[in-house]
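Researcher: Structure for this, please.
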Amino acid sequence: MRVLAGRYKSKLIRTINDPLTRPMMSKVRESIFNSLQFNIENKDILDLYAGSGSLGIESLSRGANFVTFIENSDDCITILKQNLKEFENNYKITKSSVDKFLQTSLSTYDIVFYDPPFKIETDVVKNEVMKIYNILNFKAQYILNNDGFVVIHRHTASKELDALKNYKIHKEKNYGQSNILILRKL
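Model: Predicted structure, token format:
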């Protein structure tokens, strides 16, 4: 996988070989960043479930002010640190669960990437939808700046997200088994 555009275009992004992680396809990343192209530069970004850091790294390459990477896996953090070696110090890697970070964070962000590992099993998908509701309706509203974006990558088998408070759909599209939902805070 490589950075698609910006200052670090074509830079290799290493990934971890683990069945619980899945690197986002280039065409999906490209679509996300095309939708947000005028909203990245000089913005503060939060990359939840960062994994290899592809979303945050792409943001840095395109001129983001600062990226906070949240990851709980030691293996992913090792890869993430390797991927960020050539970057300036306009990022921070925090080893934490997403829930714990969101409960304690005092910072605010312009864009939040929410890209958790997903499984096809129905119970896991239902639980993940409830987690997204909880984050969007209760936690993210305090860490997301006005007119900020939440970008959600989830399985297409996930239930529809109904009655989200304080958000409007900016874009939604399916790519194979991936559903990309970009919400804007009202």
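Researcher: Any notable elements?
Model: The mean pLDDT is 85. The chain has five helices and seven strands.
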